[in-house]
């Protein structure tokens, strides 16, 4: 008898992203994955987000109340989720077709796999693909993932990454002291125990726009990244390599803007 695909829970943290969240939700529901739980944790939006959420009826699970920020909202969603496989998709990002089926089949066929990561395209507010060289660079770095290399550069693509919910019992939830790099901190904790399975598939569209953290607060993000790195390693060459790499990437972002 054919085994059933694992259940998947997707969490979307949201706050005043009414102009993008419908595309995000549609990209999840249109996957038509047979065992899907979709949870939206909204931080008390004052735009048209709530009316959009209501329009989906029972197709999504959602709540809206003031919270302590994105990381807190994610942990709230993770703790509420019941799926065997977990991921989060921010309220301005998008899944590409057949992403969940590809991921679910891989976890089913490879029970030893603890987490999976794939490729992505970077888009702007108008869905135009941008910064293809950044995506290509991260793809190159993902060829040989390791703890040391991940401490130098964060090449794991957040919206294209999925993991077994059992990992929360082993390494804990997201660190709520981090505002930008809670996922990076989580990846480093996982990779110390389990290597990621890197799939050569594009799973998501990562959006950079005028109000996104990645588009406007990248310098603060890199500073927080460095704090994450020095909390896991005392090796001076790795620490300096990360600092130099982050400064170079920040300079490139400044130039291309």
Give a short summary of the structure.
With 257 residues, the protein is α/β, with parallel strands linked by helices. Helix content is 41%, strand content 19%. Strands 1, 2, 3, 4, 5, 6, 7, 8 and 9 form a 9-stranded mixed β-sheet that branches.
Write the layout of secondary structure elements.
Blueprint: E1 8-14, H1 21-29, E2 36-42, H2 49-54, E3 61-64, H3 70-80, E4 85-88, E5 94-95, H4 99-109, E6 115-123, E7 129-130, H5 132-141, H6 147-152, E8 161-164, H7 167-171, H8 182-191, E9 197-207, H9 213-216, H10 218-230, H11 236-256
Parallel strand pairs: 1-2, 1-4, 2-3, 6-9
Antiparallel strand pairs: 4-8, 5-9, 6-7, 6-8
| Uncertain segments | none
* The CATH H-level homologous superfamily: Spore Coat Polysaccharide Biosynthesis Protein SpsA, Chain A
CATH level 1 class label: Alpha Beta
> What string, H for helix and E for strand, traces the elements in order?
EHEHEHEEHEEHHEHHEHHH
Radius of gyration: 18 Å
Distance between the amino and carboxyl termini: 55 Å
Assigned CATH architecture: Alpha-Beta Complex
The main sheet comes to:
9 strands, mixed
Helix count, DSSP H or I runs of 4 or more residues:
11
What do we call the CATH topology? Spore Coat Polysaccharide Biosynthesis Protein SpsA, Chain A
**How many distinct beta strands?**
9
Shape: globular
The percent range for helix content is 40-55%
Beta-strand content estimate: 15-25%
Structural class: alpha/beta
Q: Count the domains.
A: 1
| Average of pLDDT | 94
Organism: Candidatus Roizmanbacteria bacterium CG_4_10_14_0_8_um_filter_33_9
GO molecular function, one term: transferase activity
Protein name: Glycosyltransferase
Keywords: Transferase
């Amino acid at each position: 008898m054919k085994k059933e695909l694992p259940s998947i829970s997707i969490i979307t943290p949201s706050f005043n992203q009414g102009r993008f969240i419908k595309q995000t939700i549609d990209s999840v529901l249109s996957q038509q994955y047979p065992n899907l739980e979709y949870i939206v944790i909204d931080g008390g939006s004052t735009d048209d987000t709530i009316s959009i959420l209501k329009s989906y009826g029972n197709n999504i699970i959602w709540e809206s109340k003031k919270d302590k920020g994105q990381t807190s909202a994610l942990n709230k969603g993770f703790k509420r989720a019941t799926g065997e496989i977990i991921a989060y998709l921010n309220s301005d990002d998008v899944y590409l077709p057949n992403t969940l089926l590809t991921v679910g089949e891989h976890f089913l066929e490879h029970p030893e796999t603890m987490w999976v990561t794939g490729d992505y395209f970077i888009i702007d507010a108008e869905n135009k693909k941008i910064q293809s060289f950044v995506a290509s660079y991260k793809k190159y770095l993902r060829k040989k993932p390791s703890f040391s290399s991940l401490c130098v550069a964060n090449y794991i693509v957040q919206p294209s990454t999925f993991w077994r919910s059992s990992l929360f019992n082993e390494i804990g939830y997201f660190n709520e002291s981090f505002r930008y790099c809670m996922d990076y901190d989580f990846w480093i904790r996982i990779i110390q125990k389990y290597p990621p399975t890197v799939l050569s598939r594009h799973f998501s569209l990562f959006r950079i726009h005028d109000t996104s953290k990645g588009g406007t607060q990248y310098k603060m993000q890199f500073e927080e990244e460095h704090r994450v790195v020095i909390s896991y390693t005392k090796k001076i060459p790795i620490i300096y390599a990360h600092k130099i790499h982050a400064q170079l990437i920040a300079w490139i972002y400044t130039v291309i803007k």
